[in-house]
Design brief:
Pfam families: FMN_red. This protein is of the alpha/beta class. The protein contains 7 helices and 7 strands, in the order E-H-E-H-E-E-H-H-E-H-E-H-E-H.
Amino acid sequence: MTASLPYVLILYYSRHGATRAMAERLAAGVESCRGIEARLRTVPPVSPTCEAVDPEIPEEGAIYADLDDLRHCAGLALGSPTRFGNMAAPLKHFIDTTSELWLGGALVDKPATAFTSTSSLHGGQETTLISMLLPLLHHGMVYAGLPYSETALMETQAGGTPYGASHLAGKRSDRPLDESERQLAHAQGQRIARLALSLAHAGGRP
């Protein structure tokens, strides 16, 4: 039996599809590297009521993540639209269920990164990325942003930050990723894949 490849978990929440499009670009970047694959997963929306109204499997897009997806990943990319300069509640809700992984140190020394989409250019892209960084540090992960060796960071007219890839979706959330945003998301996927392979080899993980 052939051993399965290590994978980067690309875990995101997307309301209108922009963050999902970014996740797919990161996945393409991961899978451009030999010896590793991307695993796309999403999280369900949350409701102020206690009644479950959504199916267990989404009608389209990635399936819902579980803790084992996170436990066994070689690297992690978190993606969320911004909500008042913070990650969206559904992603935060999922992260809040990961205490058993934290107690067991399951994610220590694994590389992680984050990406986001906003409807306005100054709508909290960087603070949203930082809000996703904080729980990753508590888990002992090694955070990796985007270095300025990625020249699109200096050329972009919309999204793109050293804290992670970002996208300007527009006020109707229907603006597609432009070339710079696509390049940066792809590069971020490549970087987290390379780091995952390097750290796994150096430390005998995952």
